[in-house]
Amino acid sequence: QVQLVESGGGLVQAGGSLRLSCAASGDTTCISGMSWYRQAPGKERERVGGINSGGNTNYEDSVKGRFTISRDNAKNMLYLQMNSLKPEDTAVYYCASPLIGSWGQGTQVFVSS
Question: Which residues, 6 or more positions from 44, have their beta carbon under 8 angstroms from its beta carbon?
């Protein structure tokens, strides 16, 4: 099994930046692609973007050009650099390895206007 733990959330003003981290532990050898998701109050969970084992990334249009996903395989870490944050980015952010069904507990990001 794989355990995922997010950190780095908090309160930031619009236009600011935050960097989220996700630490993986357990049987990390089975991890290939990883993704970030978010869920805003009253809305369904949505995918933010992902990164495969080769480091190729993809993003949803709503965050493209503002968010950057990276990973450090040696440290079993996943990152989400969020720049130019908007109030509509307010959500609980989750890291996940969807193919193996592993999800973190989430970290709250609040962007004030």
Answer: none
pLDDT tens readout for residues 14-35: 999 999 999 999 888 778 899 9
DSSP the chain: -EEEEEE--EEEETT--EEEEEEEEESGGG---EEEEEE-TTS--EEEEEE-TT--EEE-TTTTTTEEEEEETTTTEEEEEE-S--GGG-EEEEEEEGGGTEE---EEEEEE-
Pairwise CA distance, residues 65 & 28, whole Å: 29
| Whole-number Å distance between alpha carbons of 25 and 106 | 16
CA neighbor of 34 nearest in space, from 75, 94, 105, 108:
94
